What we know:
- This protein is α/β, with parallel strands linked by helices.
- The chain contains 18 helices and 29 strands.
- The chain has 5 domains: about 100 residues, Roll (Ubiquitin-like (UB roll)); about 80 residues, Ubiquitin-like (UB roll); about 140 residues, Domain of unknown function (DUF4445) (Nucleotidyltransferase, domain 5); about 190 residues, no CATH class; about 100 residues, no CATH class.
- A hairpin with a 4-residue loop joins strand 19 and strand 20.
- FE2/S2 (inorganic) cluster (FES) binds next to loops.
Amino acid sequence: MADNTDPLVLFMPSGKRGRFPHGTPILTAGRELGVYIESVCGGRGICGRCQIEIQSGNFAKHGISSSGSSISPPGPKEQRYAKKRELKPGRRLSCSSTIQGDLVVDIPAEVQVNAQVVRKADDGRYIERNPAIHLCYVEVPEPDMHNPLGDFDRLKAALIKDWSNSADGNSNWDDLTIDHHLLTRLQPVLRKGQWKVTAVIHEDKSATHPALIGLYPGFHNEAYGIACDIGSTTIAMHLVSLLSGATIASSGTSNPQIRFGEDLMSRVSWVMMNPDGREAMTTVVRKTLNDLISQVCGEANIVADDIFNMTFVGNPIMHHLFLGIDPTELGVAPFALAVSSAVQIFASELDLQVNPGARVYVLPCIAGHVGADAAAVTLAEGPHRQDELMLLVDVGTNAEIVLGNKERTVAASSPTGPAFEGAEISCGQRAAPGAIERVRINPVTLEPRIRIIGVEKWSDEEGFEEESAIHGITGVCGSGIIEVVAEMYLADIITNDGVIDGKMAKKSDRIIANGRTWSYILWRGTQELTITQTDIRAIQLAKAALYAGIRLLMDKMGIGAIEQIRLAGAFGSFIDPKYAMILGLIPDCELDNVHAVGNAAGVGAKMALLNRNHRREIEDTVRRIEKIETALETDFQQHFVNAMALPNKVEPFPKLQKQIKLPDINTQTATETTANSQPRRRRRTRGS
Ligand code: FES
């Protein structure tokens, strides 16, 4: 029992603190406070996974004066490790060093002991580790004639003796089970290792029992996991060290299901119309996942057999097809998921070529249209962890929207359609080299400047012509479409109700008649790229659907303004928030508080891979999120009609207007134009 005179120890970055008697091993102190410090060798001074750094100085805020003299000097175990494996300056082994006074202990973000590991850039955030996989080195008593216990039972007894209550503060391994695939290999492995083995234990509350899922002869010092985001367009995979938390390889590829249908609706239709359609799409996605696994393993120079845990996220249709579930029910009201809670399953049941004992955790889905990908974005960005209201928008064929704070969170999806991805636009295309991604229009001459993917220079800069010739200028991608429509509005080429103004033809020969409407020539080259009135309408319909969904959630929360906006996904990464706001795609907000968060779904998957608490956190959050079905809400239609105007018929966007002068709003025209506008019929599926 510690008393008030015992040394005070503060662990960073978690901030957990407590008093411990002199001589307490730092590893033990950390464990008692629930600070996850890795250990594979059980404190034998072999694995080096328990490294820490002592912060020196006077930490007045915490009332601690910490110095190297408050920790025991390196003993023989630590000296041996430092000599054999090199301990970086300032690093200590927490299993072999004891508390001698007040301390501030830093857990390095990544304790790298494996020299071959190559770090890959990820979003760089620190994720405290508490994985579902433990590596436990153990020495097992040899069998003898007087003790009839089986090899597994003696191994289990040794694990309980050395490790129970140390790998995880709440561990109870009395009911440890062994996977069947290991039973047949157990005896040769024990003998090969001369009764010294490294056990791989999987333990997670939502799985039934802690289980022995892998076994290595002798000492083994690495285990890996995979975090994967299965999008309807692309699949992104990260290979992560479960012991250091480092992302060591990443890869991505197109979702091969595209050949069955570009958007999700057509994939569901494919399943409905082809008896083996579901199976075909499940097979191709799993094959691609296996290809990606080989790729990341090759890049990191590891074997897939060392992969023991995987987390997956995806929209509901991707989620179902990956798990081998027929998604037909998601295509029609009431859009019933086969399962909305998190799924724990063997990787082998999903044909994934990793260690036969590997376990898969699939994050929960929020609703029939708001998937595990939106749950992962929520986990990554954490509206439920803060006081300020945060809006998360993941734009795809359908937009998934989450709005809330720690008090309350609501979610919905909006049928935006594929316009933001370049479909339904006459010169639209997917984001690829040669696609126009940035547009500026001179408000006096109406001459455009453009930038294309793959070329850094603007079109009026020297060298653009030569560099752009490599790819050609092939079309306009989603971010380019947002910019060109917004710039046309700022240059008065279109009115605030979205009509291309024929009067502007007097000002520029880029405005041309197109039947009864007008078009704007964005690019004259080998291929002429023109923005037509129909294109503008498609963007208006898409953005109005998105905004109406957001507005509905704001009504539910009883709020008129949003403090923070996060744009997730590939589309969110490339659109300029300013232009998104000028179009009225997202609500008025301080521009500095609008951020693209890239593949936040992948980050959420990685958080769930590395820390079981994050799994419980998102399971609990998803249970509490209120699901709003936009199709059932009578106000959706009115919000949609208002949002057809640029940026909006009734909302003045004061924060945006402080920074950008918007053309005068002509509400009369807007009313006339939008009176006949209808939100697109709810698409039957949602996409990412
Ligand atoms: Fe293995 Fe400290 S726990 S070296």
